[in-house]
Amino acid sequence: MSPIDAFRLSEAAARKYQDHSVPAMFAPLADATAKRLNLPANGHILDVACGTGALTRAILEHLPGQGRVVGADLNQSMIDVARSMTKRTVHSVEWVASDVTALPLDDQSFDLACIQQGLQFFPDKPAALAEIHRVLKPSGHLSLTCWRAISPFNNALAEALATFVSDSAAQKARAPFSFRDGDVITSLLQDAGFSVATHDGIILQRRFEDLRAQVLALPVEQDMRAKGEAVIDQVIDDIAARLAPYSQDGVFIVPQEAHFFVATRA
Ligand SMILES: C[S@@+](CC[C@H](N)C(=O)[O-])C[C@H]1O[C@@H](n2cnc3c(N)ncnc32)[C@H](O)[C@@H]1O
Predict the structure, then answer these.
(1) From atom 27 of ligand 1, which residue's Cα is the shortest distance away?
(2) From 166's CA, which of 124, 172, 223, 234 has a CA 20 to 30 Å away?
(3) How many Cβ atoms from other residues are within 10 Å of residue 222's Cβ?
């Protein structure tokens, strides 16, 4: 199985991602990102690895004038949910199911490209950034967020999975945090023909109102289900015990930190 095929998601997985992970984490991150970006009036904006469109929708909400916004993602299932979630707007909106390294988009056609929590999953990162460079106008910008530290939640999840499920499930839980060295990201951007305009951080407070449902919405669901209900209970209890310092009135509120880069196309 190629690294790309390993990332194919079912319709049910895309829906769970939208119902649980987006409200808890990706929508707040998208909102913080869109507010920090200087969105150009009537701009042409590309959201790469858009998933179910959390950032695409935040951009549509904050973009002045009448622009063009394109959401592109490898998974047709994510694109289908993104399209179904997005209301009519004054802007032109397009959805594209495509690998980041082969975008069916014209050269130099966007003012701004965004990647929210996608870079770490691209098997060929230099090729991905070269393709984004191709579709950006000269002096266009790239906005990028990528987790800066493994969150206490994912640490707890990985430890519980390693104890009760398998090492490969624990590895999956850590995968989104696998690419977090800011200097390495800076070098990748520079090698692809970008200069880093700003680099700072965004810290979110991720809420777990229903820990069990939120854990079972993650890609490790099948690994846990394969072990049976009793093991799922053990995993959830173990995570809850590890997250006890973050418990407030029955809700876990856990910090999660992201790099936030804005780079300019040379
Ligand atoms: C953690 S999700 C982030 C989605 C979205 N940006 C958000 O904030 O909700 C990672 C996304 O990267 C997409 N992805 C992974 N590999 C990709 C590739 N090679 N080309 C395009 N998209 C890819 C996945 O389909 C998934 O939707």
Answers:
(1) 51
(2) 124
(3) 11
Pocket residue to mutate for ligand 1, from 17, 33, 75, most atoms within 8 A of Cβ: 75
What's the gap in Å between 114 CA and the centre of ligand 1?
Answer: 12
Name which residue leads in pLDDT, 8 or 44.
Answer: 44
Amino acid at 196: V
Task: Round to whole Å and give the CA distance between 105 and 103.
Answer: 5
Q: Are 101 and 76 in contact (CB under 8 A)?
A: no
Domains observed in the chain: 5-149+176-207+254-265 (3.40.50.150)
Residue 118 alpha carbon to ligand 1 centre in Å: 5
CB 263 within 8 A of CB 195: yes
- The string of pLDDT tens digits covering residues 99-153 is 999 999 999 999 999 999 999 999 999 999 999 999 999 999 999 999 999 999 9
Is residue 42 left, alpha or beta, with left meaning phi > 0 and alpha meaning psi from -120 to 50? Answer: left
